[in-house]
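wait is this the right file?? whatever heres the structure
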């Protein structure tokens, strides 16, 4: 049973469903950092969303001559050495470099000074859905060509997905709880949600949280392509088109989205600028299929309902939904059903959009950058368009912010992530008051 909370207090009183009263600390967002296909900072990312900038183009990471898939949403102009010393950058794969770069921006944006902190109270939860396929492909070929003794001794620590969180902790001296969540496309949202819980229950005062991914590789594109999950469009403006009747799959993206979450009292005590409040978190599993969401949308709907219960808000109070919105047939149709189940008749009134229409699908990083899009939407009073959407498909009958973005007074927003394996995660973001 979801915890029930009393609103309006700095520390919320939660009922665990068994009559136990638990003090739960309010959690606010004090820093943000982003590396994306439309900009390598939060401000560049946000301005790109507002202007409907599409970060999709021909794949440059490898030769696609024998591939049906030709397009991806690559990060442009990124050099890890601009965010850390060259020797350190050389010992990190691209997904870890993205995480460190985004965390650096988020921590600087937060204004937190580690010299004034108990570093054992500052933790990290940054996930990656895959880790480094680049290192696997590179070193496996080397092993076949030159033998096992030529494999890079750093292969394993460069490859495994938890090294994004580990490298961020090492770079910035964060000695608190450090872990990662791996739930495919729901990774970033689950990571932020679990970091939220860590603060609520007193395990940390500050958490650096989000997701990172860099999987535009030959094996990845071949594998997702074999699943028929990827768009085969050769037109960058008609490739990632969530909810459109002509959609034919998602576009692989890469990047990182990282935020600084903080106990409210801790943030106020140091005079931090507060961008928003993380008010609720819900997580469920469809227990249905390894790739397809539940056809009736029930699992995703339950995640949204649980997040709203956790936040103490009613469906009619939701002002905006940032959808998972991948551009695959099943996701868009079944997520639409989920939004209707969770919000009822209000689903037809609330604006919905898909950030993936411009940045592609960042897999484990998607939830991080989409959470940042929600915070910016609330603080700027603007909901970006779902770029590329021309004609809604049958069954996709909500307001998907087609055409241009809209000004809006947003108090509560929901962001959804749905991962292979049936993993569902939803966060309720609130304007700080």
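ok assuming it is, sequence goes like this
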């Amino acid at each position: 049973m979801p915890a029930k909370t009393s609103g309006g207090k700095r520390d919320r009183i939660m009922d665990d469903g068994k009559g136990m009263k638990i003090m739960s600390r309010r959690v606010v967002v004090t820093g943000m950092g982003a590396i994306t296909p439309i900009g390598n900072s939060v401000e560049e990312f946000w301005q790109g969303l507002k202007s409907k900038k599409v970060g999709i183009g021909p794949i440059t990471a490898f030769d696609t001559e024998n591939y049906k898939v030709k397009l991806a949403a690559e990060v442009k102009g990124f050099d890890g050495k601009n965010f850390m010393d060259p020797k350190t950058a050389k010992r990190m794969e691209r997904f870890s470099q993205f995480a460190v770069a985004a965390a650096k921006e988020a921590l600087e944006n937060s204004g937190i000074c580690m010299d004034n902190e108990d570093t054992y109270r500052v933790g990290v939860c940054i996930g990656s859905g895959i880790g480094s396929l680049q290192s696997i492909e590179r070193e496996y070929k080397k092993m076949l060509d030159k033998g096992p003794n030529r494999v890079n001794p750093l292969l394993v620590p460069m490859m495994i997905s938890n090294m994004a969180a580990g490298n961020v902790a090492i770079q910035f001296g964060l000695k608190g709880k450090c872990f990662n969540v791996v739930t495919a496309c729901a990774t970033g949202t689950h990571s932020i949600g679990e970091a939220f819980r860590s603060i609520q229950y007193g395990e940390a005062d500050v958490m650096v949280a989000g997701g990172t991914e860099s999987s535009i590789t030959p094996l990845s594109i071949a594998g997702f392509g074999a699943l028929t999950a990827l768009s085969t469009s050769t037109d960058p403006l008609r490739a990632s088109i969530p909810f459109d009747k002509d959609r034919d799959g998602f576009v692989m993206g890469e990047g990182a989205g990282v935020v600084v979450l903080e106990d409210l009292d801790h943030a106020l005590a140091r005079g931090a600028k507060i961008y928003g409040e993380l008010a609720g978190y819900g997580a469920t599993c469809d227990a249905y299929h390894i790739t397809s969401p539940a056809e009736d949308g029930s699992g995703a709907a339950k995640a949204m309902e649980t997040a709203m219960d956790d936040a103490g808000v009613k469906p009619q109070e939701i002002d905006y939904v940032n959808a998972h919105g991948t551009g695959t047939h099943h996701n868009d149709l079944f997520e639409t059903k989920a939004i209707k189940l969770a919000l009822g008749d209000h689903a037809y009134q609330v604006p919905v959009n898909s950030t993936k229409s411009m940045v592609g699908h960042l897999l484990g990083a998607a939830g991080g950058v989409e959470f940042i899009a929600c915070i910016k939407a609330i603080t700027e009073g603007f909901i970006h368009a779902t770029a590329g959407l021309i004609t809604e498909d049958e069954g996709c009958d909500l307001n998907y912010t087609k055409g241009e973005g809209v000004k809006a007074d947003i108090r509560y927003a929901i962001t959804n992530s749905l991962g292979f394996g049936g993993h569902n995660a939803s966060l309720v973001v609130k304007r700080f008051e």
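Residues 68 and 303 are 35 Å apart (CA to CA). so i think its the right one actually
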